[in-house]
Structures are given as C-alpha cells and as structure tokens.
Amino acid sequence: MRSGNCARRFMLTILVSLLAGGALPCWSGEHWVSPTGSNTTGLGTEGNPWGGINYAILQATGGDTIWVMDDDNVSTADYTENVVVDKSLTIQAYDNDGSHPQIAALVNANGYPVILVEADNTTIRGLDASGSTYSPGIEVSRIVGISANPVYNVVIENCRAGWDASHTNETGIYMRRMLSGRVSGCTVSYNDEIGIFHDPNSTDSPSVQILSNTTSHNSYNGIFFDGAHGNTVSGNTSESNGWENLYLTNSDNNFIEGNVLRFSGGRDGIRLASGSDNNTLKDNISSGNATYGIELDNSHGNTLYRNGFQGTSGAVDSRNGSVNTWASPTAENYAYGGIMHTGFLGNYYTDYGGLDADGDGIGDTVHDFPAPETQDDAPLVEQRESYGFDAVAVDGFEDGTFDGWSSVVT
C-alpha cells in the first residue's frame, strides 16, 4: 500500500466497492492483463485482470510491474495493439506453460513499432512482438521518428521479435537512442531488414550489452551497430542472415567476445567499416560465410585474438589502409596437446598452411595480410576449442537463465 493520497484513494475505493458489493482492487504496484480480461469490468488483479497492455500502462505508476498472461495457444496472437511504454515499468510475461504472450501490431498501424519504449528504467521481459511491416518489433526511442533525447537503462530480456516466416517485422529490435541497458536472451529472426540494430546517434559512450541472443534468417544483418561506441557484444549466435552476421560501421571501442557468426547468405561473417576503430574481438567463431570470415574496411587499431575465421572467399579481407593487431595484448597461459604453454596468441585461419613442429599449437610461420595490414605472428593451428582457454562468461547468461527469469515466472 502506498502512503499519502494513494492510501486515501485505496480506502475510498474499498468503501465504494463494499457498498456496491464489488470485488476489491489491488494497489500493490502489480497489475495483471489477460486475453480474456476486461478493461471495463476488470480490476487489474490476478483473478480479475484487465484486457489490454496499454490500458494497464495508463493505470500504472512508475516503478510498477505489469504481468502479461497468455492464452496458451501458440498459433494465435494474445493481444493486438501497438504498445507505448511511457513510464518506468517492468512489463513481464506471467508464464505457466513455457510459451510467451504474443503481441501483434494493429493492422492499420504499420508505421509504429509493436512495442515502443520511451521511458528510462524500463524492463520488457518474455514478450513476443510481430506484425509491424514498416517498423520494428521492439523499439527504444523517446518519440517515434525523433531522436533528440536518449533513453537510459532499458532491459529487453528473453523476448522474441520475429521468429518464423509468419511472424516478422521490418527490424526486430531497434535501439534508436538507447545509451545504457541490455538486450539478452532474445530470439530475433526472419525480419525484413535487420535483427538487432543499435543506432545511438550520439557521441556519448553508451554502455549497452548485447548478450546471448539468437539472430537468424534476417534479410540484411543479424546484429548492426551504426555509430555505437563502448558496448559489449558477447555470447550471441548470429547465423544465416542475408548479409553480414555482425556489422559495425563508425563504431569504436566495443568489446566483442564469444560470438558464433556463421553461414552469412551473401557477405561476410563480420565486417568492420567506415572508421570502426579500437574494438576488441576475442574468442569469436566466424565460419561458413559466403565471402570472408572477417572484412576490415578503413578500420584501424582493432585487437583480434583467439578468433576463428573462415569464408568461401578466404578467412580475412583487409582494405583501404586498415591496420590492426592480430595477437593477444599479453602472453597467456593455455593448454594444448595435454601440456601447459605460455605465449602470445593470434587467430585461427582456415587458409593458413603453416606447420607446428614444436606442438605448442602456434604456427611456426607468420600469417601475412595484404599491406599495410600487419601480420599475425602467432596464428593458431586449430580452432579455439582445442586450447584450454577459460570459458567465455557472459554474466550468467551462458546457461540460459536470464537474471532470475526462470525462477520468477512460474
């Protein structure tokens, strides 16, 4: 129960409800909606929920939680509305069977996201969004079409924004002006353009984490950064996208670790372009791609080590004066062939033909790149799985549990 005016409103509502012989509402900061609920006769309680998410947002106060029920029928949408979150709320699936509540865009609202987050300190957890033909499934932006004001501390967790050929959006998750927060454990697939698009449109150094998501079968890129600086991309699987699985343009000082980036449909597994400088790429596997495992175009000062690169056209393509470092910053301890070793570690290239006479897992000859790119002095002779490196930790997300999601939702 809240104090002050809210407490007086609570007591007045109890009195009115008792006199009318009605049920008592709940002002606990938690609200429920259901496909079978009602905005006119419902009370927003678990036993008597409202019928719409937007209606629940209108009734809620910043800091509240809205629990979203589903009808347990995965073949149909549970809600048809374009949700606008303009308060600091947690909007979370109330899930008892493993399926997510599905939200479909209104038929005549193609210019709007299925879920638009405009408020700081917002969490969207366990919701499915599809059906927005000309807009994203989930967008973080202060006002649609206007990017003047940033949005901070938004968490999008364990959601789906496009998941098969019948449930698509223009782009899956679009962070237009999100400068801090996290996208984790989401499935973002089969969208008409991009899976996860981070476009902060800012010279600030945001702190956005892209963790343990799956992006696949999107027509353009799986994960796309445009002018994004100082972020973490870790533990994601991005595969079978039409263009690059991971594409950075004009994006600096990002940490990219432990991602699987494979089977691009028409381009590279990874591309750094247009002055994407001083990024660190570590423990990524980029394989089975249509052109190169990684392409660096006018991008400098990046540090790449313990990665595996392979593409139909070759492992690496470097152009337009790109100059980067292809080895670990310091000597590392590692196990190979049952023996502990210490040394600087480069990357694995499927087109490297050097030998390893001393059996330390490091090639005896360097791997050259076209000038002015530097060489890899310590190329790995096998993929990283053959080395005793530490497992890539993704802040608890690597095991499929998402910040208490599995224990909270029952």
Description of the structure:
This protein is mainly β. The chain has a single domain, classed as Pectate Lyase C-like. Helix content is 7%, strand content 30%. The chain contains 3 helices and 34 strands. It has helices at 5-20, 53-59, 405-408, and strands spanning 30-33, 65-68, 79-80, 83-85, 90-93, 102-104, 115-117, 122-125, 128-130, 138-140, 154-157, 160-161, 173-175, 180-184, 187-189, 196-198, 207-211, 214-216, 223-226, 232-234, 237-239, 246-249, 255-257, 260-262, 270-273, 280-282, 285-289, 292-297, 303-305, 308-311, 314-319, 332-336, 339-343, 348-349. The protein has an 11-stranded parallel sheet with strand order 1-2-5-8-11-14-17-20-23-26-29, with helices on one face. A 10-stranded parallel sheet has the order 4-7-10-13-16-19-22-25-28-31. Strands 15-18-21-24-27-30-34 form a 7-stranded parallel sheet, with no helix packed on it. β1 (30-33), α2 (53-59) and β2 (65-68) form a beta-alpha-beta unit. The longest helix has 16 residues, at 5-20. The chain is elongated. The two termini are 24 Å apart. The relative contact order is 0.07. The model is unreliable at 1-26 and 396-410 (pLDDT under 50).
